[in-house]
Amino acid sequence: MNKVYFHIICFAIWFLSFCPVMAQQTQKLYLSGTGNDNTVQWDFMVSAGMNAGKWSKIAVPSNWELQGFGKYDYGFTKDSIRGKESGFYKHTFNVPAGWKGRKVNIVFEGSMTDTEVKVNGKQAGEIHQGAFYSFKYDISQLLNYGKSNLLEVSVAKHSANPSVNEAERKADFWIFGGIFRPVFLESLPVSHIERVAIDAKANGLFKAQAFHSSKADRITVQLYTSDGKKFGAALSKPISNSSSTLISGRFASPKLWSSEFPNLYKAVFTLYQGGKAVHTINQKIGFRTIEVKQRDGVYVNGSKIKFKGVNRHSFWPTSGRTSSKDLSIKEVNLMKDMNMNAVRMAHYPPDDHFLEVCDSLGLYVMDELAGWHGHYDTPTGTKLVKEMLDHDVNHPSIVFWANGNEGGHNRELDRLFTELDIQKRPVLHPWEDFNGFDTQHYREYNYGIGNYMHGHSIVLPTEFLHGQFDGGHGASLEDYWKEMLYHPKAAGGFLWDFADQGVVRTDKNGELDTDKFRGADGIVGPYHEKEGSYFTIKEVWSPVFFERRDIVQGFDGVFNVENRYHFTNLNQCKFRYTFQSLKNKAAETGAIPAPNVKPFEKGTLKVKFPADWKKYDVLYITATDPHNRELFTWSFPITLPQEEAKRLVVKDGNSQVTITEADTTYNVSVNGIKLGFSKRTGILQRVENSKGVIPFTNGPIVQEGATNFQNIKHRMEGTNLIIESTFDRKSAYNTLQWTVYPSGWIKLNVKYFPAEYLTNFVGINFSFPEAKIKGVEYMGNGPYRVWRNRLKGNQFGIWNKAYNSTETGEQWVYPEFKGYHSNMYWCKFITTDQSFSVVTENEDLFLRLFTPAWKTDQWHNYEPIFPSGDISFMQGIPGIGTKTQRADRSGPMAGKNVFYDYEKEPARALNMTLYFDFTGR
């Protein structure tokens, strides 16, 4: 005998002689891998589509389309293969000889869709119908113990049961086939605990229904803290020839579970027979109480909750619905990083590991029975509801059950949730006003706020602000959230949805396919690329809210803050400041004393300003939560555009400004720069320097308004050349003035009036060929583009952006280059030939860079609008709509710009000042 093994055996005999006999635990043997990052090869053949009719290998778990088999189907697809595509699996495996005499189950965590299982040629049980549910068969009598066994599985992509197809397959998401979640064997002693259902309340009351073998005589439960220490005394209950036992008791002062403090305990259940421990299982639990107060709200541990949630599909581009524990951790962390506290399962139960991560990191979960617009028949639905609740019931993160989606509600199943759930959590019908909850989807702002927010039900839209392409999500969220936050019957809501569903097409050379507009609904891209809305949501949903403040001379460093947490005092958070010079990178940083501000209360945060604070450009304040997760970093500009312009613009110089006249043009020369202006309109027509032509022309064009600059004259004012129009109240009420300095800098001042009371745009345009641009460097808010209804989420700084032509949701190079950028101080345009710069004195100026090639939706609600020209300097920009709502129906921030004054007097005009440097520096 090997000496190492001999010593191990001797130690084991010695150890057991001093310890009580330990209860057996459930033993698990994986036949597949555990996720998309860990798979096992099985034999496989598909009946139709790619690589049909021949046996080969496939990774399990997986969706077979992503492995190069069958056919890709979106839920609305209709073709000849639908209903005929099946996969056939074979796998050989060994079972330990020591398992003989025990109960052995084969467990499928999820298989799409109708699944027939055979072991050693014999059918394990009836065909399972329903793709997203864990199911098992007792195969104890079918196995060859200590020998090889053959597993054969047939999986039909579409069900023979029409109601299953109505609930799962005819839907607005990708439809896949295959064994997509793990498969394993579980071995239990003859006398065993089958499962437990637990209810642990915030007041320490604990009860559990344990389902077990009827021959046992006692069951106990002991709780342990996260560091392995016993918590309270063990509970014990005798068993009286029953297959289930209710065991209960009270634990003193447990640490409570919530999204902010997800405290967990381990409950260890032990079954005894004849005084001997025969089986033990472990279950993580959280003490928390969910209470629905009708016509009021949802309370967790006595605190009224505002749910900041998102809908989430189980999805990854290279593996379809097959996920992993690591991916679940990443997704929940992304949600928590956006300051979300809730997630809705769309539109089916998730992997067990996703719920485990929600338990451990802290997210409230709405777990959903599949049913997109159709529903299961009652016999099938009854079976699947039981499978869902048996599998998920103990997760403290689950606070709601959802019976289908948008009309996919079989009302005969509602009672089952209450009967089968020991915690009696509320049941919702997403899209309906049901059971005291108005969950209707995509209500327009005016109707939603003015009507159903003043009804009698708790308002909890399970889908709102549809995120197709770049619309929705962050856009208009601030408007909606203000109402949701302060309205007493509003309980928050769930954005649609988390990630773009772009699937890798193995039949199209790896193309990433979102099925045109249907799958491009995410806050993040298919590989979790962060879009602009990600950061807007992060700021709007930050539980620390900063009241807007301007940093000006005499500012005392006091910021008004609001605590929007439910359980956390702001003195449990950390705050830091950074005074930053953007020019030379000098910085001063330090800690800010955290204020004592209780949940739902307001207070102040005091920043100690250094004596020389005016030398810095911006103040950043960063807040982190009690778990060291950044909530947000706010920026407060210290320098003003006028100050930057004074620093950057050089007016004096040794060069003389000259002007000559042609038939229609003023030709101006200064410091190697040649300019051409229209004698009739004053419009810039040509720019050239010693390096060549700069094709920045045809401006300023007023948008929306009349470009009616007339009666153009020129004059010298000292060494400066002035070219200006003449004001006329009726025909030339918009005016421009060009000033050419001896240094070569050029100043433009425009005074203008919008054409209407309500306008989409307020500003001026220029032309520049897009093919010539390589990138920009600018001082302002960035790096993400903005809309009128999505201004939050950026920081003030100096940003470098390379040109890209990203269409949000179709290419995923972020941040997007084209679009509107806010609070521009100056911008250097980097071109294929040479650079030029523009500086402004105006606060709150928007820089517009070209026009994205927009896709559209079938209702034309989403389509954003852009001014004419290529580069614009705007004092008012439009909002963006969503798939389901036009911009003007998405709240006040998405409305048109309002200009009140129609009096065409110079003093009443809007005023914009720009400086141009065409020297090529």
Automatic annotation (TrEMBL):
Sequence ranges assigned to domain Glycoside hydrolase family 2 catalytic in this UniProt record: 291-509
Gene3D superfamilies tied to this protein: 2.70.98.10, Galactose-binding domain-like (2.60.120.260), Glycosidases (3.20.20.80), Immunoglobulins (2.60.40.10)
Cofactor: Ca(2+)
Record Pfam families: Bgal_small_N, Glyco_hydro_2, Glyco_hydro_2_C, Glyco_hydro_2_N
GO MF assignments: hydrolase activity
Domain Glycoside hydrolase family 2 immunoglobulin-like beta-sandwich, first and last residues per copy: 192-288
Keyword set includes Hydrolase: yes
Organism domain of life: Bacteria
Keywords: Calcium, Glycosidase, Hydrolase, Signal
Enzyme class at the top of the EC tree: hydrolase
Domain Glycosyl hydrolases family 2 sugar binding: 56-189
Sequence similarity: Belongs to the glycosyl hydrolase 2 family.
Complex formation: Monomer.
Protein name: beta-galactosidase
Organism: Paradesertivirga mongoliensis
Organism placement in taxonomy: Bacteria, Pseudomonadati, Bacteroidota, Sphingobacteriia, Sphingobacteriales
